[in-house]
Design brief:
The protein has an 8-stranded antiparallel barrel with strand order 2-3-4-5-6-7-8-9. It is α+β, with helices and mostly antiparallel strands. It has 2 helices and 9 strands; from the N terminus they run αβαββββββββ. Helices cover about 25% and strands about 30% of the residues.
Length: about 150
Amino acid sequence: MANSTPSLEPEVPPATARQPQRRALSLILFGGAAALAMYAVYSYQRIDPVGERVAVTPLTEPAELVARQHDVIGTFATGPAPGDRTLAVAADGTVEFVEIGADPASGRIKDTYRIARRGKTFCLTTAASGLIDIVNIDTMVYGGDTYRRTK
């Protein structure tokens, strides 16, 4: 007669049953790491160089200089709320940056400018503050912020 008592040891699945799951998980993790690395390289290559000099040509023809200066003189602002900034361009060749609602001593920067051409567009090149792009008669862009004419 055969012994019909059940074995007290638990049944252990063979190790080969878990290998496909582990292999699939390893491939998924490796693929995710590779995709993340490729995205990091892509993002790094897209960064614009900071501090790179941009070729600008100052305007020297008197008639064009007078016409362009007439277009840029005025006050431009990012908005009316405290913390927004204004950009005041004067006929004497000065530009003043003011933060609305800031302490007058710390929130005001004065600089000088020259009107220049960068490619096919015009800009103001300043002595210490960088370039101010002239989009049109009512809009300028400085430091990534859009300034609209208020006066």
